[in-house]
Design a protein that fits this description.
heterodimer, A: 249 residues, mainly alpha, B: 159 residues, two-stranded antiparallel sheet, two-stranded antiparallel ribbon, 4 strands, extended
């Protein structure tokens, strides 16, 4: 009887509960815990790199300080030079700060997409997921056009071609400076790969929403899980930013 | 606060309804404003060269350390905002909270490796640095109070 009554007001708000779950609460919790399980492995993955970073930073603080100045922009820098000048700094991590802001904003649009998915407003979900993809792409474009290429031309990429001029070392011993760039490329590179993967996953989610696939439209949890991944990527950058761009003398 | 009603098809015969909270947009707006303010604060404070502070004449707290503590404290505050409000850990079930905690607790355990590094004899790499005794030791003062920038002549000796 109860089930019949239930079916009678089965409107668009129905969520399919798979047979192995007692109820929708248990199903949702399992999804979210599964996602966190994955995020824990990600924390371990990045954690080892953070640990390595702290050990070398501790031993070569001064050299890391010198090497990190190269990540900042000066009043003579292309595109953003005038802004640095207006701010009144000789060295300012403008691209880094801008990218941090962009990622924070992308997390904001992501959370709004999850909210819209809860309310099942398809138009808003698509709008906010789209904005998240746009922010993520801007982040990568800045990295690939403004941040990494100068390191290449100044021979700051670790390996056989590492041979920078003294001006680009800012007083750092070249050996620890190379170590700094190893960590810089490994950590921001791994993070960049995660951003790229995020764009892929977000795009797949947009396609599913556009198609009106029931797996995402009737249940908000898949969108929430992508959100968790995206916020985690933001979380990693929140720590990468001060560790690479804001090293004190 | 709006509520979303969820029903399900299968499961026990009894009518089961679940209500989840849809949080107000205001909460997310406040969070993102907080995050951006903290971002500006961390850049501003990182570029201030703090002076070394003497603690009751007993020990000196290097200015570098003050910068570091501020930078990491702000990063932690930002992470807490993202975790609590964007990832929704604050409103999550206890099992989810336990998993989130496990991740960061496991991460902190990694730093026990320091115990090993700090008690091991330092093996100086030729031309990188001099023998500092332990594998985890540095002189902050050496760095703060001016190792002169490396000149061409110094470089010859270093390589």
């Amino acid at each position: 009887m109860a089930t019949l009554a239930h079916d009678s007001h089965e409107s668009e708000m129905v969520v399919h509960v798979h047979h192995q779950y007692e109820n929708i609460d248990q199903q949702n919790e399992s999804y979210i815990v599964g996602m966190w399980c994955f995020l824990v492995t990600e924390i371990m993955f990045f954690g080892a790199l953070f640990l390595m970073y702290t050990i070398y930073r501790w031993n070569y603080q001064f050299d890391f300080y010198g090497a990190h100045l190269e990540l900042s922009q000066t009043p003579d820098s292309p595109i953003v030079g005038p802004i640095v000048k207006a701010l009144g700094y000789q060295e300012f991590p403008l691209w880094g700060a801008l990218n941090t802001t962009i990622l924070l904003l992308s997390s904001f649009t992501m959370v709004l997409a999850v909210r819209a998915a809860q309310l099942r407003v398809k138009k808003d979900v698509l709008k906010y997921l789209g904005s998240t993809i746009v922010f993520a792409s801007i982040f990568l474009v800045i990295k690939l056009s403004q941040e990494w290429p100068p390191k290449w031309t100044h021979k700051l990429v670790p390996g056989a071609n590492f041979n920078p001029e003294l001006a680009h070392l800012h007083g750092a011993n070249p050996h620890p400076a190379e170590l700094f760039y190893c960590l810089y490329f490994a950590m921001t590179g791994l993070h960049g790969i995660h951003v790229l993967a995020g764009i892929g996953i977000l795009t797949a989610l947009v396609v599913l929403w556009k198609k009106g696939a029931k797996s995402v439209t009737e249940d908000y949890v898949p969108t929430e899980m992508v959100g968790l991944y995206w916020h985690f990527v933001d979380l990693v950058w929140i720590f990468l930013f001060p560790l690479f761009y804001l090293i004190p003398r | 606060m709006a509520h979303g009603q969820l029903h399900h098809r299968s499961g026990p015969a009894a009518v089961q309804e679940h209500t989840f909270h849809v949080h107000p947009v205001k909460m997310y707006v406040r969070t993102v404003i907080g995050l951006i303010v903290l971002m500006c604060a961390t850049v501003y404070l990182a570029l201030i060269p703090f002076r070394d502070v003497s603690i009751f004449g007993l020990t000196t707290l290097p200015g570098t350390m003050i910068n570091n503590v501020i930078a990491m404290a702000i990063a932690t505050a930002k992470a807490t905002l993202v975790l609590n409000f964007f990832m929704g850990t604050r409103f999550a079930t206890r099992l989810t909270k336990m998993w989130a905690f496990a991740g960061f607790f496991g991460f902190s355990l990694m730093f026990l490796v320091y115990g090993d590094y700090s008690t091991r004899k330092y093996e100086p790499t030729p031309r990188w640095s001099s023998d500092t005794g332990s594998s985890l030791s540095r002189s902050v003062h050496e760095s703060r109070e001016g190792r002169a920038p490396v000149g061409e002549s110094d470089m010859a000796g270093r390589f």
